[in-house]
Amino acid sequence: MRVCTRRRSQTLRMWLLIVLLSLHLLVVSLVLSMYHSSCEPHSHPDIQTSISFFIQNTSTSTDTMAAAGSVTHKVEIDSAADDLSKLEALFSHPLYNMPTPPVPDGDWLLKVRTKRKDEERSTQQWLSANADGYDPILWNASAETHPPWLRFHLGISRWQMYQHKDPNLSALTQQLASHRIVSAVQKSGGTQLKLVMSFRNYGKALFKPMKQERHEETNVNLYYFSDFERHNAEIAAFHLDRILGFRRVPPVVGRLINVIKEIKDITTDHKLATTFFTSPVGNACFYGQCSYYCSTEHALCGRPIMIEGSLAAMLPDLSLAQRRSWKSPWRRSYSRSKLALWETDNNYCDSIRRSPPYDRGTRLVDLIDMSILDFLMSNMDRHHYETFEKFGNDTFLIHLDNGRAFGRHSKDEPSILAPLVQCCRVRRSTLLRLRLLSLPAYRLSDVMRASLSQDPLAAVAPLLTEPHISALDRRLATVIQTIQDCLEQHQNHSDVIYDDITDYPWA
Description:
This protein is α+β, with helices and mostly antiparallel strands. It has one domain. 38% of the residues lie in helices and 10% in strands. It has 13 helices and 12 strands. The chain has helices at 2-39, 45-92, 148-154, 168-178, 231-243, 260-264, 270-273, 348-353, 363-376, 418-423, 428-437, 444-452, 466-489; strands spanning 181-186, 195-199, 204-209, 252-258, 277-278, 284-286, 300-301, 306-313, 323-327, 384-388, 426-427, 497-498. Strands 1-2-3-8-4 form a 5-stranded antiparallel β-sheet, with helices on both faces. A 3-stranded antiparallel β-sheet has the order 5-6-7, with no helix packed on it. Helix 3 (148-154) crosses helix 4, helix 11 packs across helix 13 (466-489) and helix 12 packs across helix 13 (466-489). The chain is elongated. One of its GO terms (molecular function) is metal ion binding.
């Protein structure tokens, strides 16, 4: 009995186990079937739409970026072309092309000899070289055979350094930028290092090497007389002076110079030659000898051998054209504690008006022109100026040595305009050109940008950063407002305006 009961229990458990196993196998089969179905690729419309949208968006983004870059580049090209057209329009304006009477023979700085005065000399030979290496006078040679630097010298007159549309200007700047340099020596005098570069045809240029980056502003704690000289400031000053219609800065061009081949290997200056060395990173460096910043700590280095600089066409040798140096009545004290007289006396100009050579002629308004130029480029270092002795007191002022300009764009220095503010006197031609440059069609910043873009160094980087360019418009507005204030202070406008173009019809 017990045996039968035990057997039935075992049989029942066995059937239960078989049923459980069958159910388990069935569940596993169903799960595997569902998993397999879920792994098969189905054509789901939502998923396909999302993928398609993503691909299209990616493609569109790439195309948009390329198109945006293309558009930006096109805008830059169009903007540059627009600026150049403004510059061309400016220089074609009647204010820059007024008829002028022929220049009398006595109003040219140099003349070409047309008759042989020395029977022992050939009719086509150079005069013997003087102490500075050349004498820019030819015997009976035609103007076309003169080298560009000589044509520049022969174009200097009583009232300007060069003519408005001087055909020789392009050839001269091209020579400065590309012709082979045969000699490099340090220029004596001055506070910072400068070199005199000589060319094969006896032309000479003053080289100022790059001392700091274009974007670096002058330290706010640095006195103006301790500031670095900037090569790009010399270049920009030439362009700005030309745009203002003064034409009193000698032509200046930017150039990359090989420190080894174009300075060290060809210099005959022993003192300069001893200052060359190779920096720890392999750059060719030199520092020369001067009052400021001539040491290994302030060395001028190539990258690794090429260095930027400005090349300014040198004026005729002093043996041919003597120059006179004048102290500016508005020069600064060059002291850390003292002020100049003009900084404390508001009636200072009254005494200057009564003093020669400012008591007659154009000397005073020429000095005010120079102060306007200096204010626009923020140059506080105008302690002297020069004139050609041949022309006496009736001549233009030479705007030399502009290396400390364009130091700060974020601050204007109103004291530079002291001659204009205190004297309330300005040329009519200057005022009309300033007003013209304030118009959108001839905006100063635009024409300046266009003019600088033609310099060879513009291919490396813009000669002036955009903040410096923009500052010109701001400062121009200040100059015009200062003149307007003077006109409001004086009942007779003739007390303020020196009318040098009485027959100009558009004023």
